[in-house]
Amino acid sequence: MALPSCLKTGALMSPATGFNFSGSLMKSDSGFAVPTKLQSTRKGDRERLRVQAIFSFPPAFLTRNGRAEKQKQLKQELLEAIEPLERGATASPDDQLRIDQLARKVEAVNPTKEPLKSDLVNGKWELIYTTSASILQAKKPRFLRSITNYQSINVDTLKVQNMETWPFYNSVTGDIKPLNSKKVAVKLQVFKILGFIPIKAPDSARGELEITYVDEELRLSRGDKGNLFILKMFDPTYRIPL
After folding, report:
1. Percentage of the chain with pLDDT > 70?
2. What is the CATH number of domain 61-233?
3. Domain residue limits, the chain
4. pLDDT at residue 18 greater than cutoff 80
5. What predicted TM-score, i.e. pTM, was given to this entire model?
6. What angle do CA 19, 21, 26 make, to 5 degrees?
7. Helix (H, G, I), strand (E, B) or coil at 183
8. Rg for the chain (alpha carbons), in Å?
9. Residue 111: is the preceding peptide bond cis (ω within 30°)?
């Protein structure tokens, strides 16, 4: 970081007037006149100490512990906001906007810059919030909606699987193709109705998914249709059957 010019030249600038003072007398707080050169040296020393202090003791958010605490706080705010929304089924447009804003704050502190190169993505994740109407099926009676939805990704085998639970236990498996270190193209292959009746997916069953945040506990993703998906880790050891 470059030092201010006043520290290099010994000339001081009055913060009140913007004028430089050099080679004259300046009034000190004590009421005694102090030679400018001496006062400049003293102020310069104080400024150098201030700069050194900043870099020796950076603000908390710049330290490793500070970043971790900030991530924890932002995640907690997000989780508390989505908790009463039934995975998004009861979210109003204002709720969706607020969740999106909180999600973007979490995404901004993503500790995993290249998710598809990390093992953190692998495993079975439980969907806890989404804006996808096709998943939420909010217009159906509640007893006809899936109680829990899971998504599994295995980066090493390039497989993805979405699963519903009671009452229908439908699932679908597909292939993923990395487009970069965060985004994949998805091609669904086989649906299983009631968990065991296979139906080949149509060729149009394609999309893209970008992983915008992932750690050991939480994953945020955004689809190519603008939907937000928030998931919590359920089973990091789960493998998609080949």
Report:
1. 74
2. 2.40.128.280
3. 61-233
4. no
5. 0.74
6. 120
7. strand
8. 28
9. no
